[in-house]
Specification:
Single alpha-helices involved in coiled-coils or other helix-helix interfaces; about 55% helix
Length: about 475
């Protein structure tokens, strides 16, 4: 009997099956396209105990109990279809693990549905792409904690390892928590990418060429800005197009794609009342980029003579500080959302553990995640990373640099929604009083929505007959 099953032989499924086999486990694999399984078997190397099946009942029957089946399939309806396909052949306490980017509320529903059938369902966020799946991804499993012991040894073996040797996998919490955390990871990823792109745009505007920007990014990569995304950006900028021998980056159309997880994260922020402006603006930036034809027309009509000279030396001094601050602020938003969701769903999320497993294997892996891990380890109930002493000190020290970079961009007509929304969030969050008092008065005037007072208990609400009081004003 084989020890582990993988359903879905796409790129990720093929890689993770080999990863499991490379760690000494026997693996059964299945795909609804039988020729894919047959072709995959020809790539299996000597010593890899991987067995392919063309019938789902044979695939399930080949596994030892309790059966552990990892689904590496497209999120959405296909997951429900495959669950129904598997259920007739499963026995009590068998385990289905969804390793795709499923919406966490779908995972909550599926977990309860499978539980009613006597089957355990885990939603496991997996980050790292094709390469990570093969050599070690970051993994975020959520489900029944008691049953996690049956999958933990395998996951601990196949996941990435941080520099201190710790597995980049931890039990997240019950039902949909694993997929929720992966969703937030992807939301942070959106903002991380946007901020790096804005830094690239500013350096281009200052007159640096692609090779020079690559060198700059590589230099930043050696310090506190060290992260996977910046590292691969440095490499991308050096690649030549085979046909034209021009820089390939300049041949790529400036319209961005997205798969929805950034949008989900932004929507969850709105639903929970947790501000995520940098993440949301990063989603909108992709939406704006998709309006290519409209932007071309607008560029011909809305011409404004703004550009001023950008001092290269000054930019190189202030831009890395601004980028670092904006990254801290973006991550703070994501962790704030997880903090609130943990209370909302009674998940008891351990934020220090989540930061720890993101230190390796995943797309947003970065050196300063160790600092985030330390911050939550010393103060687990920290509501927002920006007020953690370590990060507060950095944000205050880099405050001037972030403002100078934004001023340079504004004065040159360069769109920087990520950097600017980060500063706005920072400035709003640290204000003891915001103009929402006028906002509440306006709402009460036109809609009798009531308001609270600074000199009365917060559970008391008041309404003013503004129309009567102000009827003689400005006559």
């Amino acid at each position: 009997m084989n020890q582990f099953g993988v359903y879905g032989m796409g790129v990720m499924g093929q890689s993770i099956a080999k990863n499991i086999a490379n760690h000494g486990y026997s693996v059964s694999v299945f795909d609804r396209f039988f020729d894919v399984v047959q072709k995959y078997q020809s790539t299996i190397e000597k010593g890899q105990a991987i067995q392919g099946f063309t019938q789902v009942e044979d695939f399930v029957a080949s596994l030892e109990s309790p059966r552990r089946i990892l689904l590496m399939i497209t999120a959405g309806k296909p997951v429900d279809i495959v669950i129904e396909q598997l259920l007739p052949y499963l026995k009590k306490d068998d385990i289905i693990i969804d390793g795709g980017n499923s919406y966490y509320k779908d995972t909550i529903r599926r977990e309860q549905y499978c539980k009613d059938q006597g089957i355990h369902f885990f939603g496991c966020g997996i980050s790292g792409g094709e390469y990570g799946a093969l050599v070690g991804p970051s993994m975020m499993p959520g489900g029944d904690e008691k049953m996690y012991e049956y999958i933990q040894p395998v996951f601990d073996d196949i996941c990435a390892k941080a520099k201190d040797g710790k597995p980049c996998c931890t039990y997240i919490g019950k039902d949909g928590s694993g997929h929720f955390v992966k969703m937030v990871h992807n939301g942070i990823e959106y903002s991380d990418i946007e901020l790096i792109c804005e830094a690239y745009q500013l350096l281009k505007a200052a007159g640096f060429d692609n090779k020079e920007i690559s060198t700059i990014f590589h230099h930043w990569q050696q310090g506190e800005l060290n992260c996977y995304l910046l590292g691969i950006a440095a490499k991308i900028l050096l690649v030549k197009d085979e046909a034209s021998r021009e820089d390939l980056i300049d041949c790529i159309l400036d319209t961005a794609g997205q798969k929805g997880t950034g949008k989900w994260t932004s929507q969850e922020g709105l639903d929970m009342g947790v501000p995520l402006p940098t993440i949301a603006e990063s989603v909108f930036a992709r939406c704006v980029s998709a309006l290519k034809e409209e932007r071309i027309q607008a560029s011909r009509i809305l011409k404004v003579e703004l550009p001023i000279a950008i001092d290269k030396e000054e930019l190189l001094e202030i831009l890395p500080k601004a980028l670092y601050s904006a990254k801290i602020i973006a991550y703070a938003q994501g962790f704030s959302l997880m903090h609130h969701a943990s209370k909302e769903y009674n998940w008891n999320l351990q934020l220090q553990n989540i930061a720890s497993i993101w230190r390796g294997g995943c797309i947003i892996q970065a050196r300063f995640l160790q600092d985030i891990t330390s911050a939550y380890t010393s103060a687990p109930d920290t509501v927002n990373l920006m007020v953690s002493p370590f990060f507060a000190k950095i944000l205050l020290a880099n405050d001037s640099a972030l403002r100078k970079v934004i001023n340079l961009a504004v004065n040159n007509g360069i769109a920087i929604p990520g950097l600017m929304s980060s500063l706005n969030y920072f400035d709003s969050y640290r204000q003891s009083r915001l103009p929402a008092n006028l906002l509440q008065a306006l709402r009460d005037f036109f809609g009798a929505h009531t308001y609270q007072r600074v000199d009365r208990p917060v559970d008391e609400f008041f309404h003013t007959d503004w129309e009567t009081i102000t009827k003689d004003f400005y006559q």
